[in-house]
Amino acid sequence: MQQHNQVGEGWQVPFFSVWVGQAFSLLGSALVQFALVWWLTETTGSATVLAMATLVAVLPSVFLSPFTGALVDRWNRRLVMMMADGLIALATVGMAGLFLLGAERVWMVYLVMFLRSAGGGFHWAAMQASTSLMVPEKHLSRVAGLNQSLRGGVNIVGPPLGALLLAVVPLQGILAIDVVTAALAILPLFFVRIPQPETESGESGPVTGVSVLQDVAEGFRYVRGWPGLFGVLVMASIINLLLTPATSLMPILVTDHFGGEAMELGWLESAWGGGVVAGGLILGAWGGFRRRILTSLMGLTGIGFGFLVVGLVPPSAFLLAVGGIFVAGVMNPITNGPLFSIIQASVEPGMQGRVFALVQSMAAAATPLGMLVAGPVADALGVQLWYVVGGLGCMLMGIGGSFVPTIVHLEDDRAVSAPEAGAVTSVVGGCADAPQAQ
User: Fold this and answer.
1) Which domain range does residue 21 map to?
2) Is residue 400 situated within a structural domain?
3) Which of the residues 66, 97, 191, 287 could staple to 435 if both were Cys, CB 3.0 to 4.6 A apart?
């Protein structure tokens, strides 16, 4: 049986104190990401190098996330978020020092991306798992939509601001800004109490290698015992196999196909961000279909259409590509939001760290293969191929998923509860009629 904590009045102040701090951190991270990717693009001009950079950043999601989730469910989530932000800031300080000394190398950028991704994985799992304990269930959809709008807003502001800053300050100056924003994210956590879930007796002992592996196995059985969610994650893995190469190679698309510079890349990324903001607002006002998974499938079809447009436009039609990216951005929160709120509303808090981490891990599982193939293929055949293939793949998944019963009835056939997950792989009936967003 699901056992969500009851969130009382006045929840807005503690939650949004943390939320605002994270908004600053996201902006700093966006500036760093843009600056490092553009440095790699200008330094090497290689699609393979950019593909490897994305692969390095994805590896923690694939291999570390299951263990991250198990630890988040055992550890103090407030401290997890503080330590994760601190690790990210420390890695950024080290990279800034290397650029200041002129000792930077491509492999060093890879290492920093890996460490930032690992820290971000801990933070993301802890924050997602804590949200259902800090926000009343009836507001989860609106908060999820607000999160999507925040990320979209950062994507609007971050790339042009990053391009502008690159023109006036050295790269290490941008890295220093990220350290300041990380400190702003950590500061509220000293004063805000992050609720801890009630743990099962078996989860309250010391953290050992065996106990973590048991928790990981229990989380996997929980997800595997929810056929609809497991099916969605298989779809997500296939989609990431196709789409992640396209997004990671966008700088090469700008320079080689459209003949653009950093500002054109900024416009494309801002169009994505603007679309995400619009999509989050639309979802917040509309709420989606009664059966939330159908909202996600519709959004996925729309993402595919947007990417397909980008893949088919000629070099002279840059504005049409911007429009295609905007459409895909609008559909992103309409795809992700409903699924995230289903998980937050359905999974007991003590299991959410593991479930969200496994969602992240399984969704990214095929990405390394896509990135290993993407660079050489794009260098040989052009980047646009990935936009066409990824767009068509998303459209087929979105349309085809609406004909798969276990996907359509995701909210009716929920996973077994955490205490039973270790022994049962079937599902129990349920009913979920609320609307949603991420």
Assistant:
1) 12-193+204-429
2) yes
3) 287
Domain containing residue 251: CATH number: 1.20.1250.20
Question: Rounded distance, CA 135 to CA 146, Å?
Answer: 13
- What is the per-residue pLDDT for 321? 96
Report the DSSP beta bridge partners of residue 428: 414
- Whether residue 420 lies inside any domain: the answer is yes
Q: Write the pLDDT tens digit of every residue in 223-277.
A: 888 888 888 888 888 888 888 788 888 888 998 899 988 788 888 988 888 898 8
Task: Say which residue the tokens 């990320």 belong to.
Answer: 151
196: Cβ–Cβ under 8 A, 6 or more apart, which residues? 76, 77, 133
Give me the count of residues in the chain. Answer: 438
- Distance between CA atoms of residues 52 and 425, nearest Å: 37
Max mean pLDDT among 127-136, 251-260, 282-291 falls in 251-260
Instruction: Confirm whether 6 is domain-assigned.
Output: no
> Looking at the whole model, is its pTM more than 0.90?
no
Sign of the dihedral through C-alpha 347, 350, 354, 360: positive
Structural domain count of the chain: 1
DSSP collapsed to 3 states, 356-375:
HHHHHHHHCCCHHHHHHHHH
Can you tell me which residue has the tokens 């950590």? 186
